[in-house]
Amino acid sequence: MQLLAEKPAKEISLREVARAANVSHNAPYHHFADRNGLIRAIAERSMADLLALVRAAIAASTDPRAALRNGGGAYIRFAVEHPNAFEAIYDPTVCVPGSPTATMAPLIAGLEEALGEAALAAGLDRAADAVGFWGLVHGLGTLSAAGHFPIEVALAGYESAVDRMLPHASV
């Protein structure tokens, strides 16, 4: 994970992991069958970290609207603050759409559930709303992480969009 902070997962080799851990170059093969196994483990760990941050942000919120804002904000911040981890999570060659690993599947479900429940509690009550919400935070996080605009602009755009999406009645 320390190497991931410095470079994309696709650039990390098992030999490099061994060097960083100060073990023999064959030692990583006791834990990973190959480089793809290492990259999958990185993606799974990264998704677990993302899910934990989103859940914590939602749980710490005072009301449903704040939960939606804070959960999405945590997602965007993770994408910007940990771009290599974020990229590893959504790399379709690592986490094949429709065929996640046994470890990744419940993490994906947990993220969908956390974001979906926050959206529903705030008044976004159609299935398409949750998909749109996830697309919004993912897109803003991806664009900001790539340098298209600063995180402050992404977060302000997100909050503005959420305010417009939510029903005006008190929740």
Supply database-style keywords.
single chain, 171 residues, mainly alpha, Tetracycline Repressor, domain 2, 8 helices, 68% helix, 0% strand, transcription cis-regulatory region binding, DNA-binding, HTH-type transcriptional repressor FabR, MT1864/Rv1816-like_C, transcription
Structural overview:
The protein is an all-alpha fold and 171 residues long. It has a single domain, classed as Tetracycline Repressor, domain 2 (Orthogonal Bundle), CATH 1.10.357. 68% of the residues lie in helices and 0% in strands. The longest helix is centred in the N-terminal third of the chain and has 25 residues. The chain is elongated and about 60 Å long. The protein starts with a helix and ends in a 6-residue tail after the last helix.
Sum this structure up briefly.
This protein is mostly helical. Helices cover 68% and strands 0% of the residues. It has helices at 2-6, 14-21, 35-59, 64-81, 83-89, 104-122, 127-145, 151-165.
Name the shape in a single word.
elongated
Radius of gyration in whole Å, from Cα? 18 Å
Low-confidence stretches: none
**C-alpha end-to-end distance:** 40 Å
User: What's the CATH topology label?
Assistant: Tetracycline Repressor, domain 2
In total, the number of strands is 0
Major sheet description = none
Helix content: 55-70%
Global mean pLDDT: 90
Helices and strands: which structural class? mainly alpha
Report the portion of residues in β strands: under 5%
The name of the CATH architecture is Orthogonal Bundle
